[in-house]
Amino acid sequence: MHQKLSLKDLNRLSVEEYKQVEKLPIVIVLDNIRSMSNIGSIFRTSDAFKIESIYLCGITSQPPHREIRKTALGATESVPWKYFKNTMDAIQELKKRDYSIISVEQVENSTMLQNFNAEKNQKIALVMGNEVNGVEQSIIDISDDCVEIPQYGTKHSLNVSISAGLVIWHLFQKNYL
After folding, report:
1. CA-CA distance, 77 to 163, in Å (whole number)?
2. What residues have CB less than 8 Å from 158, skipping those under 6 apart?
3. What's the alpha-carbon Rg for the chain, to the nearest Å?
4. Cβ atoms 60, 32 nearer than 8 A
5. CA-CA distances (angstroms) from residue 62 to 4, 38, 72?
6. 20 to 30 Å CA-CA from 60: which of 8, 40, 43, 116?
7. 8 within some domain
């Protein structure tokens, strides 16, 4: 029989403890994300897997906002974030800091997620694109690689927060398990 764990049994870190632990060297770059629910969900997933930070770009809303808070459930307090008016400025900063720029997008010659291998502790910036238009072509043009999540149904894309979760989990497994 399985007994559901209480919040106390989960033994989670406090926000102060979380800020002190080693993070996965990944920055999530949100390229003009429209939905505040998606933004909050990505914050929450980033907290769960100890992501270094989130860069919010363009029209992507910023905390504090009630709609982000509803899905983030406090993760905007634990996961550091920074706002850029222009996604290209965020990418240029990350390139200067030796991050590999990895766009999550369906493009010619993409690397399927199951074939994407990052070196342990490799500094990665994962670019997640707008819900309708995806990652800007100018960002794809300067990306080090583009990763695609294979899909086998009738729809041509996944929700951006689901895509972020899948890619983050893939990288977490490679680096921590």
Report:
1. 23
2. 149, 151, 166
3. 16
4. yes
5. 34, 12, 12
6. 116
7. no
pLDDT in tens, 14-69: 999 999 999 999 999 999 999 999 999 999 999 999 999 999 999 999 999 999 99
Quote the tokens at residue 98. 């030796």
Residue 2 lies in a domain: no
Instruction: Tell me the torsion sign for CA atoms 160, 165, 168, 169.
Output: negative
Token pair of 130 as six digits? 């707008």
**Which domain covers residue 132, as residue numbers?**
20-176
CATH of the domain at 56: 3.40.1280.10
CA atoms in the 13 A half-sphere facing the CB of 101: 23
DSSP string for residues in 33-88: ---HHHHHHHHHHHHHTTEEEEEEETT---SS-HHHHHHHTTHHHHS-EEEESSHH
**Phi and psi dihedrals of 11, rounded to 5?**
55, 50
Strand partners, 55: 29, 82
CA distance 58 to 33: 8
Please report whether residue 11 resides in a domain.
no
Domain count, the chain: 1
Task: Report the predicted TM-score, pTM, of the whole model to 2 decimal places.
Answer: 0.96
